[in-house]
Design a protein that fits this description.
This protein has 261 residues and is an alpha/beta fold. The protein has helices at residues 2-17, 52-70, 88-97, 129-139, 148-151, 160-166, 174-190, 205-208, 225-231, 234-260; strands spanning 31-36, 75-78, 102-109, 118-123, 196-202, 214-221. The N and C termini lie far apart (51 Å).
Length: 261
């Protein structure tokens, strides 16, 4: 009976959300929210000498600086600029309140010591166990929140069934999210000379309630000794931020060109 109810729910939700259209009609990329993952009491994953929250913040601040210097018509908003804990749902709220046109969440990955490379996610149904594992790890941040059952409508971050249901809510923005994600991984691979693990989809709570194209960037694995050294090097952080910036610039030009046609 339980499995049957899940199937019925899935058959209903796509129909309901198929009528939802993106709010963005101006075809202008005017406001970007940059989200440094984790923070404060939530360190994220850890390497031998560094924490995800610190690396993510450094790259997020550098990305914002580059955008502000080179795209003067674009407003940059940060979910955090210091080592501060921000609840996942509030990160989405910040983007929605400011009518953002793009939401970029920056993280570092964890896994076996031999795992390496970047990957960029859009909100969607996980296609592999590995994608689900990454989402589960990142979503565990909600356990730091006092009212997480209320904030996320009873969602259990360890329940695989829950991911199937809520992953369909970003369908209206999926194409644009995958577009910018692909451009970021292209930059990482071809300009920053990083190993790219590709563009993926999974159920990240931080992307769940955003009302705009949204992506989550995993810069690399802090659990890989070589990558931890790379990701903590200031020059390399600039390279990674520059790669994301170039992808955003290309996405902006493409979006606004289409709007004029």
């Amino acid at each position: 009976m339980k499995k049957r109810l899940i199937v019925l729910s899935l058959s209903f939700i796509p129909v309901f959300y198929s009528f939802k259209l993106p709010a963005q009609t101006s075809y202008k990329l005017k406001t970007i929210v940059i989200d440094a993952g984790h923070g404060g009491k939530d360190p994220g994953c850890s390497g031998k000498f560094s924490k995800e929250k610190h690396v993510a913040l450094e790259v997020a601040l550098e990305l914002g600086r580059i955008i502000e210097e080179n795209l003067p018509g674009v407003k940059v908003i940060y979910t955090r600029k210091t080592d501060k804990f921000i609840e996942l749902h509030e990160r989405a709220n910040i983007a929605n309140r400011n009518n953002a046109d793009l939401f970029v969440s920056i993280h570092c990955n964890a896994g076996p010591h031999y795992f390496r490379g970047s990957e960029t996610y859009a909100m969607g149904l996980h296609k592999t166990q590995g994608n689900l594992d990454v989402a589960i790890r990142e979503n565990e941040s909600i356990l730091q929140e006092e009212n997480y059952l209320d904030n996320y409508e009873g969602f259990d971050p360890s329940s695989t069934e829950g991911y199937i249901l809520f992953s369909l809510m970003q369908n209206a923005y999926l194409d644009n999210s995958l577009n910018i994600a692909s451009k970021i991984e292209h930059q990482f691979k071809n300009r920053v000379n990083r190993h790219s693990r590709g563009v993926k989809q999974a159920g990240f709570l931080v992307l769940w309630k955003t009302s705009m194209p949204s992506i989550l960037v995993e810069l690399g694995f802090l659990t890989n000794d070589n990558e931890e050294v790379f990701l903590n090097n200031k020059k390399n952080q600039v390279y990674m931020a520059s790669g994301i910036y170039r992808a955003i610039k290309a996405y902006k030009m493409e979006l606004e060109r289409i709007g004029k046609e």
